[in-house]
Write a structure and sequence with these properties.
By secondary structure, the chain is of the alpha+beta class. The chain is built from three helices and eight strands, in the order E-E-E-E-E-H-E-E-E-H-H. Strands 1, 2, 3, 4, 5, 6, 7 and 8 form an eight-stranded mixed beta sheet that branches.
Length: about 180
């Protein structure tokens, strides 16, 4: 049993101009190809999780709450939904989308804006809060693009993560962040 507990409810959720603010990440690690261990024989793989509400795979994401930064929310969601810990190394951008399931009094149309980050995975937990609801899958970038359930997540992968990957994957995040900055 996990001693970690997922946050639930929307009492502490952030909203801005009719949008529910979301934070999430694309967890990644380097995987050795074949028998070789040099840098050229490694590829990047990304972690996707099964959806709790239907078919398809997605990246960890969830509501950004009033008592945390967007970066802290992204790290929390990675632990709660995917059972991984690591270092946020790059801001991938903000991705607006419309949710059919996240409509409420503050965002009646279900409008959301997700701040997405690249998370370099350092630890895979054996137990995590949503383990019973989710399965983890490590995929190559092309495989992940094919399996992605949501268009906006595919855009974060193709236009954010893949572009950053092609540019050398340099770490661009500072350790401190503003609690009020969406990016």
């Amino acid at each position: 049993m996990s001693e970690l507990v997922a946050r639930t409810g929307r009492q502490q959720q952030r909203y801005e101009d009719g949008y529910r603010l979301i934070a999430g990440c694309i967890p990644f690690k380097y995987q050795t190809i074949g028998e070789y261990c040099d840098d050229e024989a490694k590829q990047v793989v990304v972690l996707m999780i099964s959806s709790a509400s239907g078919p398809g795979l997605l990246f960890p994401k969830g509501g950004w709450e009033n008592d945390e930064t967007a970066e802290e929310a992204a790290e929390r969601e990675a632990v709660e939904e995917a059972g991984v810990r690591g270092n946020l190394v790059h801001f991938l951008g903000c991705y607006p989308f419309k949710s059919k399931t996240l409509q409420d009094e503050y965002s009646p149309e279900g409008l959301c804006k997700a701040a997405m980050y690249a998370l370099h995975v350092k630890e895979e937990l054996e137990f995590w809060p949503e383990k019973s609801q989710r399965e983890r899958s490590w995929l190559t970038i092309p495989e992940a693009i094919q399996c992605c359930r949501h268009v906006w997540m595919r855009e974060a992968l193709e236009n954010g993560f893949s572009k950053w990957h092609a540019e050398g994957m340099n770490s661009t995040l500072r350790k401190t962040a503003s609690k009020n900055s969406m990016g």
